[in-house]
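Async update (no meeting this week)

Hi team, since we skipped the sync, here's where things stand on the single-chain job. The sequence we agreed to prioritize is pasted below, unchanged from the tracker. I ran it this morning and attached the output directly underneath so nobody has to dig for it. Comments welcome in thread, and please keep replies under the output.
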Amino acid sequence: MYFSIFPRQFGFFPFIFLIYLGFPIYYLTKEAGMKQLIGYLMVLLFLVTYRQLYFSMGKKSFSYWLAVQLAIVFSYSLFYHLNYMFLGFFPANFIGWYQDKRLFKRGLVSLVIVQLLPFIIHVVKTGSYFNTKEMIYYVPFLIIMLISPFGIRSMNRRMELEKALDKANQKIEELVKREERVRIARDLHDTLGHTLSLLTLKSQLVQRLTKVDPERARLEAKEMEVTSRAALKQVRELVTDMRAATIAEELLQVQQILRAAGITYQYDGEVDFSTISPFTQNIIGMCVREAATNVVKHSRAAHCSISIKLLSEKMNIVIRDDGMGVSTSRVFGNGLRGMEERLALVDGVLTLSNLHGAVLEITVPIIKKAEGEAG
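Output:
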């Protein structure tokens, strides 16, 4: 069985916090005898609780391990040195992982008691009520420590909402596909079912009349030809109705996606794309939607704008956001790589840059629809 120190999904992050354990280890070198030994044993137990808290997230044992960790921080701060209260950043981080509001409040109250009680006892014992130097040293860290669970909880809730949004979008896509299949089946049944039944009956009639009444058989066969041509026309009309989404339709979807994510949206450019072939519109529409999805997932932007310009020989699409930008040295992710592959089908070019946020620019050569081309 494979053993891991911390869950893989957290990456290198859990190891960074371990640096802060150097402080209690350093202070314990100044202790002696049994007190020093107990102190080192508590460090080992603290390490165990730190590891177990990562593995027990969402489980009942999570609260038990957190209680042990808080007890260790309290013991250090009260019986060793007040500087040990900085270990409270460890449980403060884990308290922020509570999704249940009731458990979060309990954890927060416990953290307040564990941090403030040793501090108050220290102030009372030393009589340093108005020791400004000590207040400046401890109080800011106490404030940061006690509000940090709110920041962690807010960050986790945002991550959960992004996951929920992804799942909802996938569900919507599945439902749209399912509905489209049902619609196609219904249309095929309604438009072709009667026609094909008629052709079957007529073919049986022709077989019987071939020897008995050849002339009438010929007329029936002619009617079958007319009926089959009508059926072929119905199929063509049905396929035409199942055309891919246009750029205008995708822009409406993009607007809804961005607004649902709390990102303001502005569009500047053309509204009539009838001169662009349906295939090119489908490619561009999918790329614009993918770009908007990336803005929602990764940019942390508050505003996004899309500009589409039709020039004489090319179409220029620019998607901007005011988010954190992107690293130009970064290898394109699957989404951007997929966009490049789609654009290659229409000789399009994609560029990604930073200018007060991310700027995605797409250039596609225009091939005008031939006269009389079907939609």
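Quick observations from my side:
The longest strand covers residues 303-310.
The beta strands are 264-269, 303-310, 314-321, 349-354, 358-365.
Reply here if anything looks off.
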